[in-house]
Write the structure tokens for this entry.
Amino acid sequence: MEIFSERFPQAARAALADPALQQAVKSATEGLLAKRRQAVEGLPEWENLREMARAIKAHTLANLSTYLARYTENARRHNARVFFARDAAAANRYVTELARRNGVTLAVKSKSMVTEELGLNAALQRAGVEAVETDLGEYIVQLAGDRPSHIVAPVIHKTRQDIARLFAERLGSDPDASVEELTRTARRVLREKFLRAQMGISGGNFAVVETGSLVIVENEGNARLTTSLPRIHVAVIGMEKLVPRWSDLLVFLQLLARSATGQKMTSYVSILTGPKRPGEPDGPEEVHIVILDNGRSVIAADAEMRESLHCIRCGACLNVCPVYRQTGGHAYGSVYPGPIGSVFTPLVAGLSRAAALPFASSLCGACESICPVKIPIPAMLLRLRKRIAQSGHVPAAEAAAIAVWKFFMLGPRRYALGGRLLRWLHPLAARRLGGRDWVSGWTQFRELPLPAGETFHRQWTKGRGRSSPEKR
Amino acid sequence: MSAEAPEDRLEKNAASAGRESGSRLPALELKARDATPLERERFVREAAAAGARVYRCRPAGMQTALLEALRGEPEEAAVLFESRELLQFACLSAETHRQAGWEIAAQQMCGCRMGDLRSGRPLPTLEFDIATVAAGVTGADFGLADTGTVVLQASRQRGRLLSLLPPVHLVILEAARVLPDLASFLAHPRGESSALTFITGPSKTADIEQNLAVGVHGPGELHIILVETAAQDY
């Protein structure tokens, strides 16, 4: 996974200095949250559904190898081809090989976070296949050579004017086009691609073990086109997308749409089971399901981190996070931003490459409260912080400060000595270092507290026997 | 990353997770119910709230509803029906179905011009292409009252594209096929089909500044003709 998470502090600072971005992220996240709140209030069994979803996910992950085998068997029974990809390279190789074998020159893609994780578009391009994103937001991101900044609403960082200018430049439309006109332009350009493409690549929201089906939830209809028009449909899903039973959809479909966009039901939900049957007038002739591991089996075997695989990618934790709402998604430097991204990115990409992310949280707990599958994100962030510290990925100054603190905390004499030193040095330090760069992260928004003139211990010793220590 | 094979890791995972409490699959029993009259009302309300336009009629009023739904279309606009049977059903009050011109097989997809529909003499033809017609007319397998959803199941007669490519999608749904909710649908025995599609309102996006725009990829208009077909109507 290509990530830029080491630069989170700098990237966050840049985002904080960009008022247009702040405004865009604020209005988008607040809008999504307001719609979600309304949708959730209309469903009295919400808490019950969350607990069901958590229990179903926990059970599925605990029995993942059994369910994966059973899913594969059922999907194959309906003539879908199933491929297990151990890592990104294997998945990309499978898809590009398939394209090459079938002479594919144009592939249409519906929105899929997991293919972003793979860097599949770049791999296809290297293999001479044009891969076109068709979700409006993702298409805009691709045209602009940009990255998505939200897992549900990829271009919340761009204004209508930005997009109108981009379309004018690249597609020759009116530079002052309205949202309707922009949408029509995208429909026209992309419809032509849909009708020509030989391959459609999608993700998947759920994979039903019992029936071997793939479930895709969307609003635009581009996923329906992607999975219906081209001769070959390739779905790439993370191995955690399984749900055991057909009836489990009742729980997850209700939770996902409400949490993501505040809808009771999205415009389209497709439940796809294999290629078109004999006699059906349309649909793909070949269906390939690529089930991706890419570190997930390691996470599944890690009792402390397993629950991060419960995520159904609704984006609610992004919308509610006080950090995400200030920085937007790009600062995280990962396909998966926000609270769940701060857990998932270091687990998939490696602690050392994303050591800043678990610290990009105030641990306020809003993410856990809103999560439709009850992932204990703050607790997991703390566990990750601990692992990062233990593996030594801590800034030198911080490590030194903690070492000094530890030395003085290890015995009562040292502690007393430390206190005395602090009372001497501190006023001096506060004056001399207050404005300096390396402490300004602290002093910019708070004063350095000055130690009391006398310790409690000393006051106690002096005033022993008196009823009120204030009478000095 | 460890050199251990993913299968081994997952096995180990199963062993460790199995010991923890709470890894049992919770019971989930779904009961299929028929929709009450009140719930059918709810279907109409919810579908409208999702952006569909709903017309209610008796079979005899179907053609009127069809023309009302498509009133904006010009005379030469092509309307494609998923089968000749459905065209005939939708134009029940037209005299033409008793006339010549119906050599097309009952299950075959066919269309006619708006002008012919209006004149009450629809002449079905096979010359239209899904990708270029003004409107597609399909039946539906179910309606779900609590979300205003129509469920279409791919079959020999019902493809995936007629409800997807044209800018207007018109659904003819028998009121008896309205179920109260998703649970009732999921409890229902499911036929073998490569694609089940839940449709709730028109194709929409809010990707640009959270502004709602319809018809981004799928139909920008969804019309639902809800037909009350009591037994005595046949």
In short: The mean pLDDT of chain A is 92.
